[in-house]
Amino acid sequence: MDENVEALKEEDGELEKEKGLDLAGDGDQKEKGQGDSEVKDGQAVEVSGTLTLKMINLMAVIAEHDFLTINEVGMVYSNQSHAYKVLSQLKGQGFIRTFYTNWRPKQAYCLTPQGYKLLAGEGKLRIKSRFDPNQYKATVFNHQVACAQARLILAQSPLMTNYFSEGMIWENYPNAKKVCDGMLRFKKTPEEKGLVVGVEVELTLKSADRLKEAFDELRWSRELDAVWYICKDQGLFQSLRRVLLGGYLPEAPFFFFMTLEDLKAGKKALIDIHGNSYSLDPANLTWPPVTPKEESKQEEPGVNDGQDHQEGHATEPVQTVTVSGQDGLRPQAIDAIIPSVNVKEELVALRALFFQAIKRNAPRYLNPRFLADCWAQITIIASCCWLLMRIEHRAQPLRRSEACLERIFDRAKNKAAARALWIDAVLGCANQKSSQNFQDGDCR
What we know:
Residues 1-21, 26-49 and 292-341 have low confidence and may be disordered. It contains 17 helices and 11 strands. The strands form 3 sheets. Strands 5-6-7-8-9-10-11 form a 7-stranded mixed β-sheet. Strands 1-2 form a two-stranded antiparallel sheet. The chain has helices spanning 2-12, 53-64, 70-76, 80-92, 113-122, 141-154, 166-172, 208-219, 234-245, 260-264, 292-298, 305-315, 331-337, 343-361, 368-394, 396-411, 415-429, and strands at 39-40, 43-44, 96-100, 107-111, 160-165, 182-186, 195-202, 226-231, 255-259, 269-272, 277-279. Helix content is 46%, strand content 11%. The longest helix is centred in the C-terminal third of the chain and has 27 residues, at 368-394. By secondary structure, the chain is α+β, with helices and mostly antiparallel strands. The chain starts with a helix and ends in a 15-residue tail after the last helix.
């Protein structure tokens, strides 16, 4: 890597100025001041010495995702050669450092304490946690890299802003049971509020129980309007789709899917659980889909609709139904009277409206999972009480034996005789054969 950097330095001499792209996703422009940047004709003037605004935004992305590799940095810049040059400069200034990943690429880049301090001074640090390479686990490498790649690709669209990484979401919702790998705001226009979309990156297939639990937690989240699942390939997408369709069908549409391969290839399209495709291209945008309620509002009757409807009834011949014997109504006659209705689609639409109303208006304690947990706790408490009552009932003969023992020692002077009398007393109080005769008061 150092050889490539030195060669590029000899050819170019100095770093070219980059555009001030907002990779951190905050969507805010800093006011000009000491050490800040000023954008002129689309170019970013240098800030903090030789750093550009794009470099600082790149450091912000590294902070929010813990680390990046040369592949992700190459997605930000035009090519990997330039990316190597930028990383070499940041490393030479002490803002980033490298560590071994035990994967490919072998090295990854994370911020140093000086880098975090620089971001805080520039107002670009949106996360409180600090990544320590000594705490790095190789098992999370592929997932972390895939989440960063998905974020960098989605951030290229003007419709998606204010991206939050998983670490940032945990800091904002510390009591949540389940959070997404990322969260963004989808806006058709800059003026509208937009939709809060959760981003889930799936690289491996989990068990059906874990998937259903995750689906249930995300579906009942009051902060999310939709969830995008970015799957590793088509096989994983079909597996998740089968789990949703196999007896666990939430309100539709809510979950949407795309593959990481298509996302890297530039095919930005979402597919719902029924196989319908929606485009995310700003030139041909078809997401989010229109719900049945919104579709009915958009359809306004024309001026002649009522007249045409009346004329149609006037000219339509009246069909009679005859009943012959035990056959009853013939199928042809029933079809003529009752129009054909897709019952499945109607039920899905009604269920979607019902769950949407509960999600928006119902309090948290009406969550079916919450009620199930309460019922399980009540059952455990009732079982423990019953068990304690049974133990108390079984312990009554032993308590009677203790009362008899004190009386026996008063009668017998030596221990052998007292032991024998005590055994007889236990047997007598337990209604067994005994050589001693005890009164009822002696066993109390």
